Amino acid sequence: MIFAQHILLALAAAASLHDGFNAQQAFAYTAKVAGFGERWPGSPGHASTEALIRQTLRKDGAQIEADNFTAKTPRGPIEVHNIIGKFNVSADPKQKIFLLAGHYDTLFQPGFIGANDGASSTAILLEFADALAGHKTNMQIWLVWTDLEEAIKAFDADDGLYGSRHLARKLSADGTASRVKGFFLLDMIGDKDLGVARESGSTRWLQDFIGVAAKQLGYSDYFFRYQAGIIDDQVPFLEAGIPAVDVVDAMFGRMGPGFDGMGEFHHANTDTMDKVSAHSLEVVGKTILRTVELLDAQP
Ligand SMILES: [Zn+2]
């Protein structure tokens, strides 16, 4: 019996966080969320997505927090619902916190379902919740589903990033920001032709950790082969003094004259399930969780 117990303990120790990432399940979550249809705030698809996030967090034993407010937008007031699922919260008031975030809203555009832009980021976080269930880390891990990332009219200083701006300010104001070791934003990472940009405004040392993790897993080809400057939900967190990285595939389909600056399928109704793959979700999901392991092992 003692011998058998030792084998069980050894197996438990070997099961690392990144090994717990199930790419097929992440893909199934992506299909489910995309299947809800348009998911702009106030839409039925948005409400269904919120319900799925909450249901998954309850199943996985997270502490659920809401960050709700009314945003002033060019379309009038809009109710915004950021959802946070916290894992491994200890009694230590100085415990470090790591944030993994992605937006779950979609563009206000009739017929736009955003399998990659919206569903893939929502889904990878749902699968992170499943991987984190019952998995011990030193840091608190917060999964953050940001709302109303998409601009109502056009991205500028005041339009877009509504949810992330509100949450970053809140963490600054209540002093939590100083305990946040880092922030990874995941966006459009389901692209089956995966290439994660080296986003030029992101925190370089934190980005380099992702490069190390990718190398360890044999995924270097998918990361940082090109540079791009992207305004996304990481910006308000950078402005709050939090080390932050935008993990984004900024080339979605063909590039060039006549196409959107982020590729032919970006913000197009052709952003559908045939453009995403379980393999891409696996590459990004495992690499990000491996990076979290590396950071968690640091003093
Ligand atoms: Zn978008």
Please sum up the structure shown.
By secondary structure, the protein is of the alpha/beta class.
Shape: globular
Number of helices: 8
Could you tell me the strand content as a percent range? Answer: 15-25%
Q: Calculate Rg over CA atoms.
A: 18 Å
- Which molecules are bound in this entry? zinc ion
What's the mean pLDDT score?
Answer: 94
Strand order of the largest sheet: 1-2-4-3-5-8
Low-confidence stretches: 10-14
Helical amount: 25-40%
Structural class, from secondary structure content? alpha/beta
Strand elements, count? 8
Major sheet details: 6 strands, mixed
Distance between the termini: 36 Å
Q: What is the ordering of alpha helices and beta strands?
A: HHHEEEHEHEEHEHEH
Question: How would you describe what is shown here?
Answer:
The chain is 37% helix and 20% strand. It has helices at 2-14, 23-35, 44-59, 115-132, 162-173, 204-216, 234-239, 278-296; strands spanning 63-73, 76-87, 97-103, 140-146, 180-187, 196-199, 223-228, 244-248. It starts with a helix and ends with a helix. It has 299 residues and is α/β, with parallel strands linked by helices. Helix 3 (44-59) packs parallel to helix 4. The structure holds zinc ion (ZN).
